[in-house]
Amino acid sequence: MRYAFYLGCATPVKALKYEISARNLARSLGIELIDIPEFGCCGFPVKSMDSFAAILMAARNLAIAEEKGMDIIGVCTGCTAILSEAKEYLEDEKLREKVNGKLKALGVKEYRGRVKIKHFARFLYEDYKPDRIRDKITTPLASLEFGIHYGCHYMKPTPAHGQFDDPANPFTIDDLINITGAKTVNYPNKNLCCGLTIMGTDEDLSFKLAAEKLECLSGKGVDAMVVACPSCCIAYENNQKLVGKKTGKEFSLPVLYFTQVIGLAMGLSEKDLGFEFNRIKADDLLQ
Question: N or C, which end of the chain is more exposed by having fewer CB within 10 Å?
Fold first, then answer.
């Protein structure tokens, strides 16, 4: 099982534990993630300023993977969303022709629309299958309880993602975590945005959004929040102390990636799962 591994811009810089845990989890499951040096930014940061430029940037990555004969597995929900959305837009022949003209000038072969894109969690759920993961569980996490944060882009926009999961009541990551023996909780603001994308324009609102979910899950006594996106982790973990300071609250809630939780249950070491890079230490749940 060989796939083009799309890390995006944030993961290698801001989410090293995510990259480490994803690579080692994939290796343990027999999934070969191939690094593609030619990959560039997905285009998400420029989408609001120049939608065509964003589509072109995404199309470049799609065409490169397509040329190499590999589908794409991503770990950033924003990246997988913009790549999936570009694939949908590029079904329009006139737009695809225009984009291919630009790609040719960049020295990239034309995009034909054959490559598939999936977030790693979705791939595990739909393609690898939960039962196969269950067979590899060696250290059940029955004593642990988690709150799952899906974020805005894991399954949206729904047409681009092929109506995957249920945007109103998401369940796929819950199901993956439940395979480990751990419990997951439902909570009122489960679908709330992390707030990171508006931090540059309204810091107070951004911190307020993050604080609302941190306060809710802390009140429920979960062992950790579980995320699937580096940007969301930045909002809830990297900024956690600052969020608390700005909102007059005190938080100490570990934030884990789903890859770390599944890896733990499969018996991977803390080092192999990048726990040394967790800013809010998860020592209690690792005992």
Answer: C
**Cα 60 to Cα 111: distance, rounded to the nearest angstrom:** 8
Q: Report if residue 128 sits inside a domain.
A: no
Q: Are residues 114 and 169 in the same domain?
A: no
Provide φ and ψ at 224, rounded to 5°.
-170, 160
Cα-based distances in Å from 203 to 21, 78, 190:
30, 20, 21
pLDDT digits (tens, 9 = 90+) for 117-158: 999 999 999 999 999 999 999 999 999 999 999 999 999 999
Give yes or no for residue 220 having a pLDDT over 80: yes
Q: Give the CATH number, domain containing residue 177.
A: 3.40.50.11810
Separation CA 135–CA 286 (nearest Å): 22
* Alpha-carbon span 214 to 220, nearest angstrom: 10
Task: Give 29-48 pLDDT, tens digit per residue.
Answer: 999 999 999 999 999 999 99
Peptide linkage before 157 cis (omega within 30 of 0) = yes
Q: How remote is the C-alpha of 174 from its chain's centroid?
A: 14
